[in-house]
Amino acid sequence: MVRKILAMGAHPDDMELEAGGTLAKFSENGDEVYMLILTSGGYTDSAGSMHKDSTLHDEAELASKILGVKELIILDYKTTRLSVNSGVVSEVDDLIDRIKPDILISHHPFDSHQDHKTAAEVMAAAARQGRVKNVLSGSPLPYRPNIFAFKPQFFVDITSTIDKKADCIRAYNSQYTKFGGEKLIERVKAMAKFYGWAMGYEYAECFEVIRIDDSLMGFFK
Ligand SMILES: [Zn+2]
């Protein structure tokens, strides 16, 4: 059975950081991975550097190729100003009606970034009434204070795809450079090692379950 996975990040590179190894594993398995980015991506960082929409879009394309994403969809909400309203929910509703994902992955509701929190709320709204059966929140990065609200519940062994995860993070050259280059990769790998240790895997990603049905566990096959 081919499963359809919709990963919804507030910004470009979010889902690569939180779920890149898992998404690569799904696509290698023959499942269909769709990447949705809610904001246009461009922003001015605290050091005053401009990160243009077009740069982020090119980087998102490259990262999607590495992950084997079937379709990349970028909406044009403004970075830092994403809010839950009928506009964004109905846009995501339309995509869910078209794609019919079995699994929806987005941010954690207690993430410290306002856009990430909003994305988590949009995920809950769009998955209402059984429209998506399996709903997962990715792990916030450790520099966010709210990481301690995250409950690691659903683990994926990403030992075979950790290199793809690293490569798709490098594909966002503007962000990779801003966040310390190989130091960022080292930290992402350390986090995957830490979660892997919990399960006896070399590297893992983990998710908090918002809800799942038996299909995700492979029961009754
Ligand atoms: Zn983000």
TrEMBL record:
PANTHER family (alphabetical): N-ACETYL-ALPHA-D-GLUCOSAMINYL L-MALATE DEACETYLASE 1, N-ACETYLGLUCOSAMINYL-PHOSPHATIDYLINOSITOL DE-N-ACETYLASE-RELATED
UniProt organism field: Methanolobus sediminis
Name of the protein in its database record: PIG-L family deacetylase
InterPro entries: GlcNAc_PI_deacetylase-related, LmbE-like_dom_sf
GO molecular function, one term: hydrolase activity, acting on carbon-nitrogen (but not peptide) bonds, in linear amides
Domain of life: Archaea
Gene3D superfamilies reported in the protein's UniProt record: LmbE-like
